[in-house]
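[Meeting: bench + compute handoff]

Bench side (C.D.) handed over the final construct sequence. Compute side (W.E.) agreed to return the predicted structure before the next meeting so the bench team could plan truncations. Sequence as handed over:
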Amino acid sequence: MQNKILSMLGIAARGRNLVSGEFMTEKTVKAHQAYVVLVAADASDNTKKMFCDMGAYHRVPVYIYGTKEGLAHAIGQEMRASLAVTDEGIAKSIMRALETGTTDGTGNEYGGR
């Protein structure tokens, strides 16, 4: 069974409703255009802390989810530590799936701030 969250990320990417990479994610959050941010569980501690702090300051939900490789594969890129969804509807669907306990099948745990 394919992961619902990764599928929604792929849809967001194809619809150009997602930015990836640390620089673009940070820029989108600071411009108040991000509705949710996902940071890979295998990202550095500094990256996770930076996005969690930034999300708290700008009131954007930040979730630790998946791996860099898994997130990148879902959006057709290579190794992405962070993603920001810029469509409110898709972001709400992703947050709902994260909060109801959808797993990625790898045993990775994740959670919101």
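W.E. noted at the follow-up: DSSP finds five helices and five strands in the chain. C.D. will use this when planning the next construct.
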